[in-house]
Structure formats: structure tokens, C-alpha cells
From TrEMBL:
The keyword Ligase is assigned to this record: no
Native species: Pseudoalteromonas xiamenensis
Protein name stated in the entry: TlpA family protein disulfide reductase
Lineage: superkingdom: Bacteria
MF terms in GO: oxidoreductase activity
Keywords: Signal
UniProt signal peptide: 1-21
Length: 164
């Protein structure tokens, strides 16, 4: 019985530390559904406070698709909070919680100290426009909301790769 519990625990740990995917492996691997120059598809978002998220035409935007339970997402958010990007006045940061509710994101915002806008995506309606699996995903947009670049934040220091 103990060996079965340990085996199940080990499998769970392996599952959670490999791409923080909440689904079985996809036969096509990781796919990103946007490319450089594409227009961001979700221009109407609502924050967890119920406010309409504005896409300021004077700022670049960093969209972070993440989950509160994902260790890679947490590491990437910590890196982001510690980076100079967090205080860049020319950048707006919007984090979208994949399969997260407003309540779970509100709790996470308070406990994790998230200093930027959070948007709930409980049914992956937003996430599915940009990827088939894998989080965190980062999408950098220009002032006209076109994709500059994308990253999968499964490795340390992904945030340091963000340049424009």
C-alpha cells in the first residue's frame, strides 16, 4: 500500500513538473497559434475586479497565460516581479489564469503579491486561441496589439529573454 502511494505521488510530481499541462500529452506536441505580426485576438477582457481591461495604444503589453497550481508559472511570475519589466512605464502586464476562477485568482493575487492585472479564463476560451498546451505562455504585443514574440516559460530565466 505504501509503495502504491509513493508511486502515485511520484507520478503526480513528474506530471506537474513537466510543462504544467493539465491534459494528456498532445499528439502534435506544443503548438502556438499566433506568430509575429498577428493581431491579438482577445481585445475585450475583464479583470478579476470586474473592470474592462484597456489595451493602451501607447504601451506594449505582456500577456502571461498561467495557472496558480503550476510551479513553472509561479517561478515565471516571481521572475517577472523581480525584473525591471514590472516598473517599465511603457509596458502593461496582463496575466490570464487558465482554468482559474475569479475567486481563485483573487486569493492568489493576495497571497502571491501579484502587482498587475489578472483575468480569469475558467474554460480555457482565451488560452485556446493561443496554444494547445503548456504554461506559462508569454506573448509580447506592440502598441497596436500585434505579436512581437512568444515564449513558453518552462525553464528558468524566460523573463530575461523578453526584449523589444
Amino acid at each position: 500500500m505504501l509503495s502504491r502511494i509513493l508511486t502515485i505521488g511520484l507520478l503526480g510530481l513528474m506530471f506537474c513538473t513537466t510543462a504544467c499541462s493539465s491534459t494528456a500529452p498532445h499528439p502534435k506536441g506544443y503548438e502556438t497559434y499566433v506568430a509575429k505580426g498577428d493581431k491579438f485576438k482577445d481585445m475585450t477582457l475583464t479583470s478579476i475586479q470586474g473592470d474592462t481591461v484597456s489595451f493602451d495604444q501607447n504601451k506594449k503589453k505582456l500577456i502571461v497565460l498561467f495557472a496558480t497550481w503550476c510551479s513553472d508559472s509561479k517561478r515565471t511570475l516571481r521572475e517577472l516581479k523581480a525584473s525591471p519589466l514590472i516598473s517599465d512605464p511603457t509596458l502593461e502586464i496582463i496575466a490570464i489564469g487558465r482554468e482559474e476562477s475569479t475567486a481563485s485568482l483573487s486569493e492568489f493575487k493576495d497571497s502571491f503579491g501579484v502587482p498587475f492585472t489578472l483575468v480569469a479564463d475558467p474554460d480555457k476560451a482565451i488560452y485556446s486561441h493561443y496554444a494547445n498546451k503548456g504554461i506559462p505562455r508569454l506573448i509580447l504585443l506592440d502598441e497596436q496589439n500585434r505579436v512581437i514574440d512568444t515564449w513558453i516559460g518552462e525553464t528558468p530565466d524566460t523573463v530575461s529573454q523578453i526584449k523589444w
